[in-house]
Amino acid sequence: MNTFFAVVLAGGSGTRFWPLSREKTPKQLLPIAGDDTLLQQTVKRILPLIPREDVFVVTHPSLFADVSAQLSERFGESWDQNIVTEPEARNTAPALGLAALHLQRLAPDSCMVVLSTDHVIRRGDLLPALLTKARDAAGRGHIVTIGIRPAWAETAYGYIRAGAACPGEDATGARRVEAFVEKPDLQTAEGYLGHGGYYWNSGIFVWKTATLLEEIKKYAPKLHGALEEIRASLGTEREDQVIKDVFSRLEPISIDYAVMERTERAAVIPAEIGWADVGSWAALEQVSQRDSAGNVITGNVIDIDSKGSIVHAEKRLVATVGLDGVVVVDTPDAVLVCSKDRVQDVKEVVEQLRQRKGSEHLVHRTVHRPWGSYTVLEEAEHYKIKRITVRPGGRLSLQMHRHRSEHWVVVSGTATVTNGDKVYDVHPNEGTYIPMTTRHRLENHGRIPLQIIEVQNGEYLEEDDIVRFEDDYHRTEKTRPWLPKVEPRKS
User: How would you class 231 by CB atoms within 10 Å of its CB: exposed for 0-12, middle for 13-18, buried for 19 or more?
Assistant: First the structure.
């Protein structure tokens, strides 16, 4: 039996879910369709089949701390050794190739299932049995994808045209893949629905790592050469630098284009598991409860006579009257209003924000961190005011700022403060001053959340004016390993 691993892709930017998602808090880190975040939901549904030590998450270095914190908070223990980071985003083929090299180092006979954090699966209880069939088919040399039986003529999904049953795969139900089809127009999608041999492309894949790398060698030789360069460095002092150098030269390419659309070994297993791709605001209609008029309404909303609309509010009241097919999303620092049939164009708003060098595409006014959160209350030239909350047992990095000083006033809890060579406690209604270029740290050793008001003064007040010397969440200037440092598994 091949060792079965799960690889969860969690490196996307989620631009089409702006303003709820931001570059530093993309949609996979948000509870968009339930109490758990999309990342937590994805890991939760695979754990009945694959133990946590065999579940690996691929993400961007800037998201490492948040990914690790979310998984530790939800599932316990540290997840640091289960996270693969890419030096640069190069689409899914390089990411999966790097993950495959790591898994082969753990177990040469490894088999892997690839899951995306873009998905909601309402019948997750059916997934273990389905993936067990896919693993069996993959063990016989197939590159398996899960095809979702279409419930309606969807134009936002790619499709798979299935052929005859694969020889010897009666037990798994695997069929040959005749073609991958791009997103169709409505008339074509209706034809696919009536035909019966077309399935939505779920983006859930199962293959032996050796098979994947063989197909990359055959159909994407440049990528294969780059991966072999990385393989030769694994376990040496050069490993991290080689991975960084190789990724800087790679051209972005998806696994669909690099392998799946070209391989002759592709097989599809049809399934009905309540799958939906949460790719844009319009997708909420498929994963959320709708009212009698077809609206999806969440948060502090008063609606009168709207239909077929999506309205999301946070603390501030949002009132809507007579909307028809409109999306309204309100956050503390940005509001989105758009026609439901134009939600794919939200990413263009994000691009214009980048060009304007604004911050609204990067972070929220409230920013969650592994140790707690901070909220920007007010800012102007030369000063910024924040409310900082540190969870019990949490602590910020040992750090300094080159361009600002800080005043801290404790609102609740007790702050343990490192200020230069001194360590002392600050109680409610007490304050302290952190001079510029002074090493400092904020900790909460108590049993209740610590809240402080921070007033920053200086010529430059951005978040990149942080020099970290020690950090519990691997955010120091020293680069953490791209691949987890673990011992090979015993066969």
Answer: middle
Planar angle of CA 470, 471, 477, nearest 5 degrees? 70
Cα of first residue to Cα of last residue in the chain, in angstroms, is 10
Q: Evaluate the omega torsion of the peptide bond into residue 184 and state whether it is cis, within 30 degrees of 0.
A: no
Integer angstrom CA distances of residue 228 from 22, 83, 223, 252, 415: 35, 21, 9, 17, 50
42 sits in the region (left: phi over 0; alpha: psi -120 to 50; else beta) called alpha
CA 126 to chain centre: 23
Separation of alpha carbons 92 and 118, rounded Å: 13
What value does the mean pLDDT take over residues 294-302? 96
Q: Is the dihedral of CA 187, 188, 193, 194 positive or negative?
A: positive
pLDDT tens by residue, 307-353: 999 999 998 999 999 999 999 999 999 999 999 999 989 999 999 99
**Which is nearest to 19 in space by CA: 294, 314, 308?**
314
Average pLDDT, the chain: 93
Strand 296-298 versus strand 310-312 pairing type: parallel
Taking a C-beta distance cutoff of 8 angstroms, is the pair 233, 243 a contact?
yes
Secondary structure (3-state) at 80? helix
Kindly write down the DSSP assignment for every residue of 160-195, as one continuous string.
EEEEEEPTT-TTTT-EEEEEEEPPPPHHHHHHHHHH
CA distance 481 to 468: 17
Long-range contacts of 233-239 (CB under 8 A, 24+ apart): 234/101, 234/105, 234/483, 235/105, 239/481, 239/482, 239/483
Question: pLDDT for 196-235, tens place per residue?
Answer: 899 999 999 999 999 999 999 999 999 999 999 999 999 9
**Is 408 within 8 Å of 454 (Cβ atoms)?**
yes
Per-residue DSSP letter, 259: I
